[in-house]
Specification:
heterodimer, A: 198 residues, mainly beta, globular, B: 224 residues, alpha/beta, 5 helices, 25% strand
């Protein structure tokens, strides 16, 4: 490691562990690959499609009628900011997958505007992921992915796809959008899996 | 490639380290890279880079990183193609890098840079983009096929032909003598609010989403 002469830095007094290479932010930066997607509730749906082409679909009223949970989680962006104790409300992927019959182990998450991200199915289940519709007690804003986004906080936040429209089961862990542009296929912040060559 | 960034890590003697991402300011070579640092008041990293470092000091760099918000000479391989670069403030850094690459490579792709800034004091790369000291476009033509437009949002030099204010659709129309009405691709870089505004203008002009590439920055994203 290279020592930079004279550099002191601002050591944060919060004695909380954040993943390596991250720093705390009190703001909530907005990042995206393309323009924000504006989806009216009347046009919104969420669809899970399996290998047999069967699908489960919810429109907005059906989705909002499902049981939601309030959660507080730390989130970590690959651009190096971490935000602690963020408050969300959403429907657990466990709830959405309850009626889904699949032998495939991987998913491609799809979003309006063409963004995609891939995950093993296990990373979405067991209380690890939600489709979030509210942030800090208010409807999720467009710039942060509203009306609904995927929230999977144990991985780098590019996996928490904004403007989510559905999930397609896939046989292998094929890379999504950022994964094809040089970012890590799995993305564990604690092992600092930022880039594809990590 | 122009548009890529590098991750910079500074480590103090006690082992404490801080990392930030910076856009490349010039196309990098095997033994040299260049970044432009925007000094953030009371920032943790930029004051050290801008004012503290001396020649001979060392830091760790990783990259270049990024394959999306990039442009290389020869892209797209079409003779009438144009590329639109829309910069808000220090969002000009990766976009001027693209313009530099285009000029250095003598690439024929037409490029229009629309650079939105508050007032003449905020102008980056002034001597390179304009010649006249009050900030007008230089009277002799830019390299053929390059158009640079400065859009002042608060104060403009005296006699400036464009009305002071935020970007409008007119600012983003390609020159009428260029063969295409729309650019093959638009790159937008700046604060989140700027990017939202510019993206909506591009959509109104008819740009489909897949031809709009975005890089937003702020105090915790990619620094400039």
């Amino acid at each position: 490691m290279t020592i930079s002469r004279g550099f002191v830095g601002h050591k944060d007094p919060r004695a909380v562990d954040i993943p390596p290479g991250q720093h705390f932010t009190d703001g909530f930066p907005v990042l995206s690959a393309g323009p924000s997607q504006y989806i009216p509730h009347d046009d919104w749906s969420f669809t899970i499609t399996t290998e047999s082409e069967a699908s489960c679909q919810w429109d907005w009223p059906a989705f909002m009628a499902l049981p939601s949970e309030d959660i507080s989680v730390d989130i970590h962006c690959v651009t190096r900011w971490s935000k602690l104790g963020t408050s969300w409300t959403g429907v657990a992927l466990d709830t959405l997958f309850a009626g889904v019959d699949t032998d495939f182990d991987y998913v491609m998450v799809r979003a309006h505007g063409g963004y995609t991200t891939n995950l093993p199915l296990t990373e979405l289940l067991g209380g690890k992921a939600w489709i979030a519709h509210s942030y800090d007690g208010a409807p999720l804003s467009v710039e942060h992915g509203g009306p609904a986004r995927l929230l999977v906080p144990h991985l780098y936040f590019w996996k928490s796809a904004k403007w989510v429209s559905g999930i397609t089961m896939q046989r292998s862990d094929d890379p999504g959008f950022w994964e094809r542009f040089g970012y890590h296929n799995y993305g564990d912040p604690w092992r600092e899996q930022r880039y594809a060559d990590a | 490639m122009p548009g890529q960034h590098v991750d910079v890590r500074l480590t103090a003697e006690d082992g404490y380290s801080a990392q930030r991402s910076y856009s490349l300011a010039e196309p990098s070579s095997a033994d040299r890279l260049s970044i432009t640092v925007d000094l953030v008041p009371h920032g943790e990293v930029s004051p050290y880079l801008a004012n503290g470092m001396q020649v001979g000091d060392q830091l760790d760099v990783r990259g270049p990183i990024g394959g999306w918000f990039v442009w290389q000479p020869g892209d797209p391989p079409a003779p009438d193609a144009a590329i639109l670069l829309v910069a808000g403030g220090s969002g000009a850094v990766p976009l001027v890098t693209m313009l530099r690459a285009r000029n250095q490579a003598l690439d024929p792709t037409r490029m229009m840079l629309v650079y939105s800034l508050r007032d003449p004091d905020d102008l980056m790369y002034g001597p390179e983009l304009v010649r006249d000291p009050v900030g007008r476009r230089r009277p002799d033509p830019s390299p053929r096929g390059v158009e640079v437009r400065l859009a002042y949002t608060r104060h403009a030099p005296p006699g400036w032909p464009r009305r002071v204010g935020h970007l409008t659709i007119d600012d983003l129309q390609l020159p009428s003598e260029w063969p295409s009405k729309l650019a093959s691709r638009a790159y937008v870089c700046g604060s989140s609010g700027f990017v939202e505004h510019a993206s909506q203008l591009l959509r109104t002009l008819g740009y489909p989403d897949h031809r709009i590439r975005i890089e937003r920055f702020g105090a915790s994203g990619v620094e400039q």
